Amino acid sequence: MAESKCVNLATMEVDLDQRRSSLTLTETTLEDSRHYQCSVTIPNDDEGNTAATTSLLVLVAPSTPICSIQGTAEYYQDIKLTCLSEEGSPAPVYDWKSYNVENNPRQLPPKDGVLSLFNITRETSGFFTCSSTNRVGSASCTFTLAVMPPSSNTGTIIGIVAGVIAGLVLIAILIYCLRRRKKNKNQAHDERYLLSKKPLEIPFNLETLLFLWLYDF
């Protein structure tokens, strides 16, 4: 029996008496999934099959998937939610679940790792969970989607509101000035009227008394 080793990778044993060879892999990883071929060389005998091939599939549970968005989460836009596990053998199967902002489940069509959403609105906002599953295990990620009004429209709305407020302030100032001017004008008119109605002041002396006494007779 002969034995050879590849450090930290594999051990190969050959039993000539039993006409058998074995390859032992240690600490296998996903990179060890491949085809392996065993070749036999017999001097002066080249008849029959001199090689055989086998396949090895190393099973690996899906790694935690990464959830991301493609597009802009604004009203009436089309976006894509993607879900991808970097590792997993056999290849994972992806499944999406969705919950609204009240955490109530809602139906989604069966999809793979890409979920397409069209003409999104505020009602599209919520939580989206992607599960990555194979026969070894599963993992998931959750994406929170908040659909907002377009940024340009938001600026326009703010500008309109500010303009309306400024206009109302100017109108209020104009009304105040007109009323103040009218009040001052009326007050000046009243003062002139009072001056015109002021009683005649007659000096009181002996001549005045004599005049009044003669006038009575």
Automatic annotation (TrEMBL):
<dbReference type="GO" id="GO:0005886">
    <property type="term" value="C:plasma membrane"/>
</dbReference>
<keyword id="KW-1133">Transmembrane helix</keyword>
<protein>
    <submittedName>
        <fullName>Glycoprotein A33 (transmembrane), paralog b</fullName>
    </submittedName>
</protein>
<dbReference type="InterPro" id="IPR036179">
    <property type="entry name" value="Ig-like_dom_sf"/>
</dbReference>
<keyword id="KW-0472">Membrane</keyword>
<dbReference type="InterPro" id="IPR007110">
    <property type="entry name" value="Ig-like_dom"/>
</dbReference>
<dbReference type="InterPro" id="IPR003599">
    <property type="entry name" value="Ig_sub"/>
</dbReference>
<feature type="domain" description="Ig-like">
    <location>
        <begin position="62"/>
        <end position="146"/>
    </location>
</feature>
<keyword id="KW-0812">Transmembrane</keyword>
<dbReference type="Pfam" id="PF13927">
    <property type="entry name" value="Ig_3"/>
</dbReference>
<dbReference type="InterPro" id="IPR042474">
    <property type="entry name" value="A33"/>
</dbReference>
<feature type="transmembrane region" description="Helical">
    <location>
        <begin position="157"/>
        <end position="178"/>
    </location>
</feature>
<dbReference type="InterPro" id="IPR013783">
    <property type="entry name" value="Ig-like_fold"/>
</dbReference>
